[in-house]
User: Fold these one by one.
Assistant:
Number 1:
Amino acid sequence: MTAQEAVEHLSRLLKQTREQVPVPFTERDAERALAALLSTDNLWEAIRLSRVPLRALSTFWHRLIAEGLLEARDGALRLTANGQALAQALGVAPVREATCAHCEGRGVDWRTLPESVVERFMEICRHRPEAIQAYDQGFVTEATTLSRIAFAWHRGDLEGKTIIVLGDDDLMSIAAALTGAPARILAVDIDERLIQFINEVARREGLERLEAVRYDLREPLPSSWLRAFDTFMTDPTESFRGFKTTIERGLLALRGPGCAGYFGLTHVESSYEKWARIQRFLLDSGAVLTDLIDNFSAYVNWGYIESMRSWKWLPTHRLPERPWYYSALHRIELLRLPELDNTAVAGDIFSDEEAATT
Amino acid sequence: MTAQEAVEHLSRLLKQTREQVPVPFTERDAERALAALLSTDNLWEAIRLSRVPLRALSTFWHRLIAEGLLEARDGALRLTANGQALAQALGVAPVREATCAHCEGRGVDWRTLPESVVERFMEICRHRPEAIQAYDQGFVTEATTLSRIAFAWHRGDLEGKTIIVLGDDDLMSIAAALTGAPARILAVDIDERLIQFINEVARREGLERLEAVRYDLREPLPSSWLRAFDTFMTDPTESFRGFKTTIERGLLALRGPGCAGYFGLTHVESSYEKWARIQRFLLDSGAVLTDLIDNFSAYVNWGYIESMRSWKWLPTHRLPERPWYYSALHRIELLRLPELDNTAVAGDIFSDEEAATT
């Protein structure tokens, strides 16, 4: 196969994929998907390495299978000889990992936290509520939560600060409180189980500055939380509408310029087009992006994986054995007071065309 | 001192600082500066930890000194008892470092590169041209250059790709060529010494895909370089005009959507206000920010430090013993073809009100 033939073939595959899904899927996305398939035959690892929304990725896989370029069997994906020839003619190379093994690529080391914080947090997590689909839950590994807290402490967003955690199945509020550094921590969540769990831990562990309150993000922020916090932390649902609503609540909760916000964003459910749209929304809201560390957050596999929206898209099925759903840690800082409405939002905030897990 | 008195005192200090410098300086900047002074008495370490443009930071220091809150002597900065009381009343805490010691906070590990690449690069760097002020030079540590290359390789921006390096005192083109992965590497620089050095290394080391050509970024990009590369790498001068010109040349050199660019940006010479302005410019140019890793790049101290613009701003003088000037690694990816002019730029592109090193 000549390079020219390969480019034309890829171009047809792209056209067909785009006709089938209302999600951006670029030549570079296809290249990343092929690079991942050259690097692993594990379905979940291929998703992680592709950095492409799963909705488009799975459609592309089905196209490859239909053309005899890919085989899907027993949860494994293998490029056929023709598939490998196509990748080679396109000049695609396997992914060459360079991730730091010590910090898992985060750049911050949770082992810098006091040992007692780590030990108590790990013990508390043994009894945490299970993730449920109704609230688009799925929590991160303990190392991830601890790393986020170490990061925020490093950046001066923890010690002496008032913190609001918007949706806290990751138990960031507990890890933050265990450090003893923040002045006050409020965790809010729609899930009564989490509210009870966090308040029970606060009582049992003597964490007097930690409190959890039930709150539905679709409702306006209560006036006592407006401009009342130094830092917000959240891990939003990724439909653009749900994401925007969550971040707006966070921005409205901040006192003003110089206050910081933390959130995650994935490739599985968000294209780079959506990332760009979000970046513009943040700038328009008076925030600057100060840090963006991809694959910072690793999610523990949740129990409802076989009923998630994207399960039926997969060309072969096997439960994942290791984390495969990752998100990029974003830190923003306010440069001016945002001009945002604090109004109720009706209806479904979990779904958009790139959503995969709800 | 009550918290209220401290806030009022800080507010006066901020007002005075802002009157003296035409550079944004926020309450949070002042807080960061005080946190740094609580963490170290080393002038250069205080700059690194403050993450504030040096022009504003040094003015703030002079204000603190004038009010008996800070002592500057023999290259050391020490908060007085009154200064410490102010910081305490404001609730400012020392910086709590959480940086991964193994990768120095980069998240990527240059030790994943083949050993021979590392060894040959280190050896080549022993004879590199010295940094000179006329071109705003100042190169990064070998570990930094190697980490950038490991990062780009990981992200699929190296292997089989054509790469242009715009200004290459960091010798990224050489490190990239040593991996043998890229299809072609063009290094361009205004400095004839670097062109000769890179071409001589390419000849001696048998790096046939590497070439260096003299080029002044103020000139339009030659037509044969337009839309000809997959990846650009640069470490721009940080005046907004110089930065924008450099990145525009890089974007114009890219083939189109899916191509990637790498660049650095500091706190020493760029406020978060300028960062936000740059982020908007990138989005407007059709790019999305995919990674932003602060303090990724550490600069080797250059020989002209005593004649740099900011030397006379410092309240006490001592040569730095370790790296203190860092930049944040940014990776962008093109989502659409940028609409940019390829025209000549006249005059000084090195200076703006936040510039510190030229």
Number 2:
Amino acid sequence: MPDTRHTKYLLSEDEMPKTWYNVVPDLPRPPEPVLHPGTKQPVGPGDLAPLFPMALILQEVSGDQYIEIPEAVRDIYKQWRPSPLFRARRLEKALDTPARIYYKYEGVSPAGSHKPNTAVPQAYYNKQEGVTKIITETGAGQWGSSLAMAGAMFGIEIEVFMVKVSYNQKPYRRSMMQAYGASVHASPSDLTQAGRAILAQDPDSTGSLGIAISEAVEMVATSGGKAKYSLGSVLNHVLLHQTIIGQEALLQMAQADDYPDVVVGCTGGGSNFAGISFPFIGEARKKGLNTRFVAAEPMSCPSLTKGVYAYDFGDTLGMTPLVKMHTLGHDFIPPGIHAGGLRYHGMSPLISLLHDAGVIEAKAYHQTSIFEANLLFGKTEGILPAPEAGHAVKGALDEALQAKEEGKERVILFNLCGHGHFDMAAYDAYLSGKLEDYEYPAEAVAAAQARMPVV
Amino acid sequence: MPDTRHTKYLLSEDEMPKTWYNVVPDLPRPPEPVLHPGTKQPVGPGDLAPLFPMALILQEVSGDQYIEIPEAVRDIYKQWRPSPLFRARRLEKALDTPARIYYKYEGVSPAGSHKPNTAVPQAYYNKQEGVTKIITETGAGQWGSSLAMAGAMFGIEIEVFMVKVSYNQKPYRRSMMQAYGASVHASPSDLTQAGRAILAQDPDSTGSLGIAISEAVEMVATSGGKAKYSLGSVLNHVLLHQTIIGQEALLQMAQADDYPDVVVGCTGGGSNFAGISFPFIGEARKKGLNTRFVAAEPMSCPSLTKGVYAYDFGDTLGMTPLVKMHTLGHDFIPPGIHAGGLRYHGMSPLISLLHDAGVIEAKAYHQTSIFEANLLFGKTEGILPAPEAGHAVKGALDEALQAKEEGKERVILFNLCGHGHFDMAAYDAYLSGKLEDYEYPAEAVAAAQARMPVV
């Protein structure tokens, strides 16, 4: 009889890491410079100052391995952190696998996902530098609601451009932002030139993260210095803040007296995958371990598995600096899958570099397979995951089933980055057989990639 | 400057209580007997056997102070327990009160509320006695989704009658039950005589917990012994299971080196209020403390503040045994407030007795005041509470403001029984000014009370 006793690994608040983990010293080569969209020359910290407070810009370019978490940030982290790490014994039993499956659970935060890990420090550093208003965008709304919460806590006004397909699919996330006091616009909107340009081309546009970024950046640029911009993924400092996840998981795996053979996370812009994996990538380098790292992404928006590694804009209209990353083309509009948090044309430059260098692997999944995995997970472990998080569940299931086929042990650690309580309409669609899979839109991607800037 | 540092009190899994706390030995007089609806004579355990497994019936009538929690139940409890206890320093600061406010947070469970505390043991005891199917009802869906989860874990089929107004207001709770594998019907339905009788009178009936109970009980009674019944509140054994909350809170208040002057919980059927308060009621009796206990209920369904203390049916159609409780009349249909979990005509017999004996107090609130309280709580503490839980928030705010007025310290402990992630439509209604308050329906209650059985 397999042991199905529940096992949870907890840390005390005193054991909560006091630093974030910067992966830059572990990279096989230095990060590529960020380029000015006009001159195509490397930008300096001063070029980013209209968008971000200086403390975050310095984190963006830092080469230090450890960066201290301010006490005021740790104080709020303690509302939900340290988060639990579970051994998924009931799931293992259902799969009849020799693999040992562990998951770190970030759905215990007040917003129900990992996003507050960076929303809180971003609001904190903005507050420190006297910023009174932050403008951002959000896909599924996990990021927007987290920043809205952090804004309420620090007394900063928050304005959010929310991708229209999610605004309609997930109205409860919009309400949540408003409950925290934020104002929310469906993007594309008629509030910006960027939004109006998209609507002129396609009045029925359901939007994309890239378009919403264009709108938010334009709004900041035209605010006369009255507002700063904030991003919930992609950038180095955002990924940095999420490494509290992996830092805790390292301590918890030690409690379990075990160590992962493979670390799995879902990827949209890359922040939760970075959060769980970067500290383990550091361990692998320092100790010469053969740990595998698997990024799980949607088949319909597969930036790592199908994108090119090249300089491109972070937004659809080409207003942001150019970054070297895996990209499907900055004006590619992904299909309206329910994992709205993963609908981004690009990928974090740090994760792109790690993928290009062969440090990490990537896999792409159809959304029906994600919901099938989530239902099995919910029935065995009790938690119904968000569609985004389901990509990591599916990736972990694949690893466990492969171990079973090979008849070998395998230790799997994955990041369950959020619960699905806001996504029950998507579960409904799946359960009633109405959830569609979208084939990889090869032609649209090729066309978008042909429109990328030449660097 | 007040100290606004975040403070959370945690227990290790080893410290999780191994017993539930039975309040019966602490009552000022013995509980009143349950009567057969036909003969009006006291029922024995055998009379309840068609509805419940014997282990739960024995808990229902037990006079033992402590009842052991089975290891298999504790094992699943550990998925989310021990739950955190917080000191609400940011809220205290916003209120500028000398009161110290603590809250126990039950929204960390996979279902987002305290209901799994009893769903898991109920499924366990049914499984132990070979039951393969359980039929139940649910108001807002918190109970139904919790039993659906527990059923999935123990391999028991779950069928749920969900009050129609919530079925329509909260479709995500229905999807959640279905995701766990349960079947769900909007009540009143045409599947039972009870449902058809209500629909014949009023085809547009939005239902009530009382009607849904009638339907579930009838379905069990006509199942030929193939299904048992389960209730998510009201009964002694259900309240017993929830005392894990207060047992933990006692240990956590000791960690904080503090003790409540007043304990606050919301009441619908009474289970979460009992969960937090019963162990403290026991402490008060044994140590001669003057702790106050405040039950917070909706103004539109105020069973404790406006009900009579008398024998009445637990369901609308008069199929259940008669219990002595505070009741608005078994066929009173409460207005469709968003706190669907509190829309019940009666109150747990144990809590009714304690109220009648002056051990506990009760207060009634309008729903707009609940959402106002919840927004303040969300903006300061980060968590957006469920509308039901908001009654406890409001009760705690009132106590804190009274302490401020008196310029005196007061230690307040309340139970935050669930998060509001499924209730954002209600927040939306409040934020857009569309949330209505319902005056106390005095005439409808008087008419319903006139139709109560004569005992």
Number 3:
Amino acid sequence: MSHHRSLAIFLITCPDRRGIVASVSTFFFERGFNIVHCQQHTDPLEGRFFMRILIDIGATPYARGQLSEEFEELARAFAMEWSAHFTSDTTRIAVLASKEPHCLFDLLCRAHGEELTGAQVALVISNHPDLEATAAQFKVPFFFCPVESSSRRSQEREITRLLAQHHVQVAVLARYMQILSSEMLDETPLPIINIHHAFLPAFQGAGPYRRAWERGVKMIGATAHYVTAALDEGPIIEQDVERVTHEESAEALQKRGRDIERVVLARAVQAHLEHRVITHANRTIVFSPGI
Amino acid sequence: MSHHRSLAIFLITCPDRRGIVASVSTFFFERGFNIVHCQQHTDPLEGRFFMRILIDIGATPYARGQLSEEFEELARAFAMEWSAHFTSDTTRIAVLASKEPHCLFDLLCRAHGEELTGAQVALVISNHPDLEATAAQFKVPFFFCPVESSSRRSQEREITRLLAQHHVQVAVLARYMQILSSEMLDETPLPIINIHHAFLPAFQGAGPYRRAWERGVKMIGATAHYVTAALDEGPIIEQDVERVTHEESAEALQKRGRDIERVVLARAVQAHLEHRVITHANRTIVFSPGI
Amino acid sequence: MSHHRSLAIFLITCPDRRGIVASVSTFFFERGFNIVHCQQHTDPLEGRFFMRILIDIGATPYARGQLSEEFEELARAFAMEWSAHFTSDTTRIAVLASKEPHCLFDLLCRAHGEELTGAQVALVISNHPDLEATAAQFKVPFFFCPVESSSRRSQEREITRLLAQHHVQVAVLARYMQILSSEMLDETPLPIINIHHAFLPAFQGAGPYRRAWERGVKMIGATAHYVTAALDEGPIIEQDVERVTHEESAEALQKRGRDIERVVLARAVQAHLEHRVITHANRTIVFSPGI
Amino acid sequence: MSHHRSLAIFLITCPDRRGIVASVSTFFFERGFNIVHCQQHTDPLEGRFFMRILIDIGATPYARGQLSEEFEELARAFAMEWSAHFTSDTTRIAVLASKEPHCLFDLLCRAHGEELTGAQVALVISNHPDLEATAAQFKVPFFFCPVESSSRRSQEREITRLLAQHHVQVAVLARYMQILSSEMLDETPLPIINIHHAFLPAFQGAGPYRRAWERGVKMIGATAHYVTAALDEGPIIEQDVERVTHEESAEALQKRGRDIERVVLARAVQAHLEHRVITHANRTIVFSPGI
């Protein structure tokens, strides 16, 4: 997505009915905005409408507040849930990791190379000290939050506190290997993206590569999804797979899987950062990258 | 694409400017039509706008002629090129083949199994008699149009005559293996879809599997494109590839390639039949299948 | 695999130990055979060795019986399970289908186009009369074996009888949609290949496209496996997937899935026909096509 | 590939004839070695045989020199070209980069995370100073070797000198963007692996993403190959592709392409480090990873 222009991105969903596209596009047209990109989706089963619309706001005198206020009027008429995002803003990310470095490294490299659109890794949190040097390499603050079964809730509260303190807007579980309690999810009003090292819903839970090997699958995969209280059952954002053969042991699958995990997680984070994802009924609408 | 409803599909392209989406969506809204699906694309380099819009026309009193007439007024205001298509119509296809049966078979099976949306294979034309029984199996008329270098133009005129006589709307070269002259293309005002057995622009021209083997590529592919006077250089509709290894000879690649050819050609024909393709500047906009 | 030479294919498995490759290759070398292709696999966990070896038998005076007898001596020394196959033989296939034509059509087209190496579709069996014309088109005998819950075992016995009567060597369930009882599997000493319309082990059982849609997966797949008494849990031969989007309904997934089903089933049948598959501990070793 | 055992890897190629497998496997069997993995390939067109064989050398009294000497006798009998490699050795890599960090970052992360089997990045060389901090982050020496058209040969000689001084065994061009002269290639007796940002042989030379966009391809790719004097025409080690749409600009393709470049280059380097590649007649045999 280009950064040369100052854009607003509206994500909209509402019950489907006649006239939504006409009303929304007329709303922006009448105010002199250029629609740079627009994508809709209608779920005919649910009778629900979804829209992502990019507006060039560079050349207009509108303040954000005024635009939002006026749009809210239209939104009410269609019972819309909506949010507006601005490409001039920076999104603050927290990465939670454990011991395996590959996903953390990948996200840090991408952030450093300006591949994560408009985002900044604000901090790294881990239940192990192993990756402290990795974070330090990229000059990102590292917080060691050890966890034992007895201290789980207090550790989670510490994490929630850190996320709030650092004004984090999205948390990424980069092979964090800990299950977040539903209490923590309730207390942490952030989207949380997890990478699961299997092609969900196959091999939910622990040890997916071992189980994939035992089942003798001919492809392995990875799945990035929003975290919900139900383990590995949140809305899927992105998946990918690679072909494997009988020659590869469970350890070889695990090693090979790292490339899938890295890329699938990065694509999901990128889609989230570009405000291309709407969640509804435990499924995602992922609009295409466009431009 | 569902056939339970009677839909009109408008394909639109025009110079990009403010207000197109608002105007088009308002046009249909004001006339009481429900927009079932709508997809746009703006090419920022060319400053050009593209749109595919599906309208439910089942419940309205509008005749096709009236709708088109009224839309033409709007179209003129934006300098639109546009066409309207109706899902209740059947598209008549001609398949041109040579000796290899796999693509012809595949298209006939799909047509028979109602996998080619709203289409009918009206006739098969070949420069060899080998596939007559294949066409007969599916009760499709077969025309043998042999060609020698001295008779090429007269053979092409015979083909053009057959296409016109059978009211063909799209011709598919299913491994036809003959180059159509620019004269024939001028005289045949039909879209013609070809399957090339390589990942264009690699291996244009003859013997692509042999040349792919010689080059030692690790993937082979196929490309479906609209035919233009420049050999293998027309607008690409669809491509796909498969991984290969050093163990596969040129003959093995050719055999393996058949599965790619079949599927890539079928997808391209399907996209064309669903009116999802707009061609511009030798490139295609291929709208997503939707619904 | 080339058919110009007369080849024998030995499939071998035994406990791993030193000297197997040396002994087997020396066995053929000493008798004047040329090893055309040879592939091994050692499962280090199970300590088990697997081998596929292709021998050119065209220029040697050896009768099949003598070769087998002499090899059996070697095999005993290593506690080998082994089988020998000859490319000059034709494999007789039965296809079991229900109402959906696409996989049956695909197999018949491939057999007709000589894409199924050394195989012949000997008969088609169905629990519905719908596909009789399809079989007739390809001049393959069709047997209608209706089934009701009360008559299930007698229908299965009729199928087992037909398979035996037609000297069938492998049965293919081309979207047959019936679960074979363990009694039938016991009575039918044939490998049976099934195509499941999901990426196993995800979505075992009925309605996988509907459930894939509900789960919101971003890729759908198909799995070909040998049938065992445990539903959808037999050894996997081949899998493949395609990327899908939120725009595709469960019906669209089903339609799209046909291309995956066709190709995955055909590849699995082809691997079986080329004697490239060894099953062990509910997993498959699938040797590469070679030559 | 497991590192728990001390293994020797023999790469062998020779004219095809009867008895090679028997002789080689008997050679190792008679000396008490366990064959851990073995893969052959015969090119029937060229009449040439290729073999990769892994031997467990941990439990034998053989010194490297003695084993090589004895094998050389066998090799002479079959006119073999061969090399032996030992998993206990470390391979020293030089990475040449320019300004784009993503491939360099990726290789450094993999080396750091022990994903590059038995390898060490010994130094980074660049014609621009931009990536000095990146190398420093990973504590890898960085050498800035600027180049102007007048000084090209002297810059190349400096690079050749650095490679020799640091005992480099393989050089990797990680988006180096400079063409190496045939003089330099002659003077640098090392395998050099390059990543080209296109699916070769499509889009050889400069600006492949721009040209891919102009041609309107539906997939983009990357190719890792050994460098030869003919630009982008060396033996291909690995390729991969991703599907793209009309919505993606040339810049979007370039951005998307980074993930393909990273993974394709890493896989090729990994295959080289595992001694799985034999080059013959400008093509590669890439043995499968095994174990």
